[in-house]
Amino acid sequence: ETGVTQTPRHLVMGMTNKKSLKCEQHLGHNAMYWYKQSAKKPLELMFVYNFKEQTENNSVPSRFSPECPNSSHLFLHLHTLQPEDSALYLCASSQEAGQTRGYTFGSGTRLTVV
Amino acid sequence: QKEVEQNSGPLSVPEGAIASLNCTYSDRVSQSFFWYRQYSGKSPELIMSIYSNGDKEDGRFTAQLNKASQYVSLLIRDSQPSDSATYLCAVHEDSARQLTFGSGTQLTVLP
After folding, report:
1. With 0-12 CB in 10 A as exposed, 13-18 as middle and 19+ as buried, what is A71?
2. What's the pLDDT tens digit per position in A40-63?
3. Which of A74, B22, B102, B106 would staple A32 via disulfide (CB 3.0–4.6 Å)?
């Protein structure tokens, strides 16, 4: 257990479904991140939250909707996804965005869109 | 577009040998550099960080940074089969708000 917990670990959803990914960190960090990891590609930053405020949206399609109710929790709401959205979705946290000494990653959610 | 480049591999070394992993980056003002290890099906795990030119050693791992050449490397001495994983290089500019990752180098240590 890394201090960053993601649920579910695996998710299979149809293109018309709505689902949510959850991330919780127990490290007292103030920044949280969503990354997408596809095979043979670099980690792609999706969203950054710093002290609950969204500071980055890396041109992510609107079918991905983040929510950060507090510094310890981060959600990624999914709706009308496409098969190419199938990937490993990683949550990470750091002490504060822009002053990182490295991120701590969660175990990820393996998403398959059918 | 800031880029971090790594050879994708796979890189194979025999057990006990030195594994050398390389990374170049395009942003000259990058200040912080990290190596993550990612086992198949697992999340990335931070194993080394380096902030100034030169070498930094931690056990069997040595990170080397050359900012003039925009080059950072990771050496693994006495490689073990348990070191077999994908190694991700990550670079951070202090004024930015996120890390930029390379695509990773897959390392296999052969028993």
Report:
1. middle
2. 788 899 999 999 988 888 889 999
3. A74
